[in-house]
Amino acid sequence: MLNTFNILETIRMIQEECLDIRTITMGISLLDCIDPDIDTACQKVYDKITSRAEHLVRTGEQIEKEYGIPIVNKRISVTPIAMLAAACPGENPVKFAKALQKAADTCGVNFLGGYSALVHKGFSAGDLALIKSIPEALSETENVCSSVNVGSTRSGINMDAVALMGNIILESAQKTANRNCIAPAKLVVFCNAVEDNPFMAGAFHGVGEPDCEIHVGVSGPGVVRAAIAKYPDASINELADVIKKTAFKITRMGQLVGARASGMLNVPFGIVDLSLAPTPAIGDSVAHILEGMGLETCGTHGTTAALALLNDAVKKGGVMASSNVGGLSGAFIPVSEDAGMIDAALDGTLCLEKLEAMTAVCSVGLDMIAVPGDIEAETISGIIADEAAIGMVNNKTTAVRLIPAIGMKEGDMLEFGGLLGSGPVMRINRKSCAKFISRGGHIPAPMHSIKN
Amino acid sequence: MRAVITVIGKDTVGILHKVSGICAAYQANVIEVTQSVMQDMFAMIMMVDISGLNSDFSALSDELAALGAKENLDIHCMHEDIFNSMHEI
């Protein structure tokens, strides 16, 4: 039975604590669009996406009205394009990127992910051509996102791909130097990438997924922060319980919206990704949750423990609230998209090394971090290798989304605007790892990968 | 099917009348109203049956939102499912 307290609590969460559905993402398989003629393939891609996602944005808006909850983004993820590019040897895969952009424009979505390649064990046909075309594809499109999976717990880390991605990230930044180096903000390098992630820039539609499905990504750092603020003297166990209860409520909302969208669009319901995804808006920060637990500034000693507690409690609360939990699920720590992280980085308390430690216990990895524009490609590869190693050994997804700020140095601010926010250029370790990266080859999978 | 309409703002003459007028125009039957005025702040929660609406639910919520903007009131019209799913197991 509804009571006044519950009604007002829900409205307060939405109005004052920035609770929203961060994204409804439609995953679409493009396996039936493979064609040896690239122009035919591009046309099939465009036709399939625009027919499946024709009503996606309108449906999202209708649900927003019905439930009174903002649905911030409507997005699409597709089969890794390297698989389609494999059928068209000698062709420039950027044609696919342009077809995806055209489809995104027609559907009215704000991001479309899947200009991707999965190369954790090695390169197959199409993979190398696609990866090499990423800088051009991202600089010539607005809303297409790209990702490359370079490692996994079961297969180890492809160090040739790691070395290559250092160059690709740097080249992407250089190509868009006059547009705030926006291209690498749309490029994620993964270890243990998940196939049903609704969040950009790393979303793609895995080959094990159905033809078409709907995923929902919930958010709500502000709600968790407000909830723990009510218990200034609670013990850590009590804090964990407060977070679990809050995560449960947030996830129930995601489940409701996902089920409704799936019914209206007549597409199977995929997963709810119960991630705490910050935005630059005041009061929507993961760093402020950690500070609310008792840290003077995010990044100080105790930050990793506080984040581990938060990440675990969010999952435990969310799991019971949804019939299908998936994606990345946990707490995101993108520096440029989180007001508290930005302040902590400017303050010098939050450094790259601490962020790396935090990625061992949060849901993804080094995310939206601006680094000096004169960084060596090998150093970027070294950062990717470290992050991939954390993911591989700990059986978790890790990712790197670095933005080399061309022409800028440590302490400058790189402005993206919108959801991507603005990032302080962070200090990097200048000692070389070039020799290690240039060896190439493959880091073997860890002992615990042999489970069968 | 039911929806919850909440109205919060400075108390003036005829708020309940205007909100319920819109409900009547859309054939939304008012089932329950709780209302309080604290100092000069008006707060009302109204439960309405929307099974017999003569138009889209979004048209009703748009019209209520427009009334809120005009009268400087904070008005929300939300399907009851969102509250049930969030607060009940």
Helix content of chain A: 40-55%
Strand order of the largest sheet of chain B: 2-3-1-4
Structure classification of chain B: alpha+beta
Taken in chain order, the helices and strands of chain A follow as: HEHHEHHEHEEHEEHHEHHHHEHEEEHE
How large is the radius of gyration of chain A?
21 Å
**What's the rounded overall pLDDT mean of chain A?**
93
Global shape of chain B: globular
The most extensive interface, with participating residues per chain, is:
A-B, 20 and 22 residues
Query: What percent of residues of chain B adopt helix (DSSP H or I)?
Result: 25-40%
- The H/E string of chain B reads EHEEHEH
* Structural category of chain A: alpha/beta
CATH class of chain B: Alpha Beta
Gap between N and C termini of chain A, in Å? 49 Å
* CATH homologous superfamily classification of chain B: ACT domain
* Biggest sheet features of chain A: 11 strands, mixed
Number of structurally distinct domains of chain A = 2
Q: What is the CATH C level class of the largest domain in chain A, in words?
A: Alpha Beta
Write the layout of secondary structure elements.
The complex is a heterodimer of chains A (452) and B (89).
Chain A lengths: L3 H12 L5 E8 L9 H15 L3 H12 L3 E8 L3 H4 L8 H14 L3 E8 L8 H14 L3 E9 L3 E3 H17 L11 E5 L20 E7 L2 H9 L6 H30 L3 E5 L12 H7 L10 H17 L19 H9 L4 H8 L6 E7 L4 H17 L4 E8 L7 E3 L6 E3 L9 H5 L3 E2 L9
Parallel strand pairs in A: 1-2, 2-3, 3-4, 4-6, 7-8, 9-10
Antiparallel strand pairs in A: 1-7, 4-5, 5-13, 6-10, 11-12
Helix pairs in contact in A: 2-5, 3-9, 5-6, 6-7, 7-14, 8-9, 8-10, 9-11
Chain B lengths: L1 E9 L4 H11 L3 E10 L2 E9 L7 H15 L1 E7 H8 L2
Antiparallel strand pairs in B: 1-3, 1-4, 2-3
Helix pairs in contact in B: 1-2
